[in-house]
Amino acid sequence: MAFNPLNWFLGFFSLDIGIDLGTANTLVHVRDKGIVINEPSWVAVEKKTRQPIAVGQEAKVMVGRTPANIVVIRPLRDGVISEFEITEEMLAYFINKTHEQSIVPLPRPRIVIGVPSGVTEVEKRAVYDAAMLAGARAVYLIEEPTASALAVGLPINEVGGSVIVDIGGGTSDITVYSMGGVVSSRSLRMAGDEMDDAVLQYIRNRYNLLIGIRMAEQVKIKIGSAFPLKEERTITVRGRNLVTGLPETLELSSVEIRDAISDSVDAIVQAAKETIDDIPADMVGDLMDNGICLSGGGALLQGLPERMSEELRLRCWLAEDPMTCVARGAGLVLEDLEAYSHLLLTLD
Asked: How many CA atoms lie within 13 A of 57 on its CB side?
């Protein structure tokens, strides 16, 4: 990244922000303030005009409850932009909301945004353009697992292997670092969203009960697991019986939900195995010493560290506040862009 004196000067006055532009949630980190926004990546729009009428949490509560002229969408799918204009509007909303916290006018911000490690040049350009049009002065992109590793404090710039598994809503990224570079990596578009969908489909196929995606997400969060629990749990869900068309209540067990999401969990574990299988033999000892860090909202799935530790035969541990790692790492980069420039992505 070329040094820009004007950006450097304005950086003393602007409210520069790090953003985790996630499929499920968008988080905003402000220098010296920490996480100031953590809202769902949902936007409610008027069908004919395509004008947003609600963003974030306000939009999410409308899911499944809107009249015919309003649709609630997520403008990102599998970690990348699927609705460009809506993403631009959503980013502008969050940037403006961040600036509203200041009592004086501020220059346009510099922004560091986390993107999945498997994004294409076209997808990177879409994120860059959307952020610039939303009001940024300068935009820098960083891979989400790299941002998470910085937030956690992994020694990715040192000699030796450091591994992070970053599981979001749309993508799961597994990356092995050494000396500031990537030794081995995998990115799969299999994460929290697919688990939610698996829960929904399981209940539909097994019990002929139709529930909403928000309810499926709550089932996953409350009783979903990747490893047998010490005490298995149950949850009551409500939906519409597909046979009678009438409302119905159903009690589900954590054993059922673990089985329902097993394919998604298996895919993530398998990707981690393949990533580690690619590393040089001399680095295996480093991994045995350092273990594997799990970050991202999807890493909060109960029993996931235990499941991965058993499958990989390596210590797997959960990052502190895993959901905010990408945003915190992006914010850390803003503290010294020059020092972290080798970790930023370039646009062709």
From this structure: 4
Question: Cα separation of 336 and 63, whole Å?
Answer: 40
**CATH code of residue 227:** 3.90.640.10
Residues β-bridged to residue 248: 239
Whether residue 289 contacts residue 259, with contact meaning beta carbons closer than 8 Å, is answered with no
Q: Kindly tell me the burial class for residue 96, based on how many C-beta atoms sit within 10 Å of its own C-beta (0-12, 13-18, 19 or more).
A: exposed
Read off the amino acid at residue 339: A
pLDDT tens for each residue of 143-181: 999 999 999 999 999 988 899 999 999 999 999 999 989
Q: 121 vs 80, 110, 118, 135, 347, CA distance in Å?
A: 11, 21, 10, 22, 7
| CATH at 287 | 3.30.420.40
Overall pTM > 0.85: yes
205 and 224 Cβ atoms separated by less than 8 Å: no
Per the structure block, which two tokens stand in for 78?
């599998």
DSSP at 56: T
Domain carrying residue 199: 192-262
Nearest to 330 by CA among 345, 317, 346: 345
